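Make up an example, fold above all:
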Amino acid sequence: MSGSMDLNAVNIFISVAETGSLSAASRKLDLPVSTISRRLQALEKQLDARLLERSTRRMRLTIAGEDLYDSCASAIMTLKDAEVNLSCSRDLPSGLVRLVLPQGYSKHLFLPLIRRFRRHYPDIAVSVSNRYDNNGLVSGTADIVFTTEYQEDHKTTSIPLVNFTHQLVTSSEYMGQGAAPKLPEELLHYDCLTLKNGGKPVIWQFDNRDGKNWSKISPQEEIAFSCYSLIREAIIAGMGIGVLPTLMAGPVIQEGRLVPLLDEWRIGKGSLSAVIPAHQQLPRAARIFMDYTEEYLSSVINWSLT
């Protein structure tokens, strides 16, 4: 044998051996039969060995051909796999996406989302903060801010993701102390856990599901909190009754750690939004995360939001 072996010719030989004919190999490789025949003859001349027995009916491997096939088939397949893997790795998105998440929604929404996203896009790193600051978007220290408290800003754009209402909930431990309220007005006789309102009185306005009745009360603010996530934990701890977004309360109700009250009533509406810079194009990694998030949220939320 003179010179190094022609791997392209070897690949042609393996295709002929596996398909059983020159014409079948021609279709598989998208090469003319004449080219395949010529490359095989050149390979046989280089190896100084006859590889194929040709007849009018069929084609079979010689002993030398069987030895070459056994030695090279797996190696050629390994090379092809390596080529595919390299091609895929070149096409796989990479980079960094910087997120700001709202408090209280990480465990049931965003942490599972990020975990699943990383399985699909392992080369995209994720940086997470919970400090909402529009200046971060404008200055470039954050790519996407997820919030339920978006305020109109000419420097940013809000993309609505999920609409929800608010629901009255408590714990089974607290309800074990007495009967559950049947009307909103009866809440004045219970321990109500409220959200701070900047020094203004807290108002809970209840709208009945039938759309015909409503009720408004001002609960005693004996225990007030700065965010819904603290209210949720206080309710779970058996400290009283409170109002939570259905987006936050739903999965905890499913777990049995919260109990819904006055289920025919709802309190106000809300929206989870993604906030992005108004006049800047998102980096590719952030665009991919944004698209993935919209698809994920539409499929994973299996509790009532209304």
